[in-house]
Amino acid sequence: MPRACAVLFLTLLLTGCATSVFNPATNKPMTKDTPPGMDAPLDLVSENAIAISFSGGGLRAAAFAHGVLTALKDTKTPQGTLADDVTFLTSVSGGSLASAYFGLNGPKGLEDFREKVLLRDFERDMHLSVLSPNNLLRILGGGLNARENFGDSLDKHVFNGATFADIYRHRKPDVRIHATELYAGIPFPFIPRAFSILCSDIRSYSVADAVVASMAVPLVFSPVVMRAYPDECNEPLPPLFERVNADPDAPRILKAAAQMAYYRDPKRVKYLKLVDGGVTDNLGLATIAVTRAILDTPYAPMTERDAVKVRRMIFIVVDASRGPGGEWALSEMGPGGVDLALAASDVSTNSSARFAADSFGTMVREWRESLVRFRCALSDEQVVQLGGPSKGWNCDDVKFLLAFLTIDRLEPEYRDKLNAIPTRLTLTPQQVDDAIEGGRRGALGLRRLQQYIRERVEPTSEATVPRP
């Protein structure tokens, strides 16, 4: 410890010599040819839909998410598998590895995700030791690691240079990766509407850069930088922003979303600095609330046609965070130094996640109610025009289910195994397999998912559900 203190003291003296570590902005401006929706697919929802949020937690979270998706792929339905029902994926941090890969490769990509991603030693090319004077200088200069230490590996070996245009060509699912924007202190979703506020075109943006932003734990990684292009705009700001700013009683989530208007003011924001989405919401739920706020429709993020077609949707909130831990709880002394900082960070992250989970249930109920009001206000002619039935239309026939999958709800064997897996970017094969199997078993044991399966299957058919 004296050696570490001496190193830290020396580094503080050398602050003026700190190594500058940053990620240059790579997002491109809009042009006059940029389409309003930036080619993002629309009308994705059918009669049955599954929406999933994947939490952070390093490779443990990615493997846990992979187990959930594998369970869905292994569950047969009359039309295919439950993986085909996955329509919306929202994610943060480590969960974004799984959601982005699934968005680019679909259910078929589940076959090689373990070998190609989960077993990769991402930490091999990363700066990790805080006892190294050079690394301490890097921390003071912006962060231990920049794109060349992690993002380049993701881009080359995992996503093969893919951009959001590549995700959109696959149409389904709608993938919403979530980071934290530091200036306004708000969730930033990688979606066309958010990019249009920046006056930037998401189609050419690297999927790897979005995932790195979602995973950019402060100090461990330097922030991912994006540039605002207020002089390149061909879309107005959402009308909601002006209404919210004029209303002192507007909900706080709307107030937060309206701060995106700062991106059009070059005197306040020229560059966005994005870090780990877990700083604002480690469950990846905030991006849905922000999306609903900036789109400002009763059915967002669905379209009108989606709103007419959907009959049942299940939201599965997948939380791969670990339970309480720390040997310092067994002694009078401690925690100290790094353990204290990490413990305080975990408390803050978990507290915001609990609040997000509680408020999400309310948002889902309100979403369903506003969607039904929209449906019931349609004329028969409008229903048919939007793809609904000409006969037997029931505007109230919409069911939203909500399920939470957490490590602490697993059977004791897998709960203990997953709680022992660290939040890192390199794991052993056994740790990876334990996390995958925990996610698979946990998903198959969800009561609400079993209800969804029963209700989506025609009366004369049966779904084939694999045993946990």
From TrEMBL:
GO molecular function, one term: hydrolase activity
GO biological process: lipid catabolic process
SUPFAM superfamilies in UniProt: FabD/lysophospholipase-like (SSF52151)
Keyword tags: Hydrolase, Lipid degradation, Lipid metabolism, Signal
Residue ranges annotated for the PNPLA domain, each copy included: 52-289
Keyword Lipid metabolism: yes
InterPro entries: Acyl_Trfase/lysoPLipase, PNPLA_dom
Name of the protein: PNPLA domain-containing protein
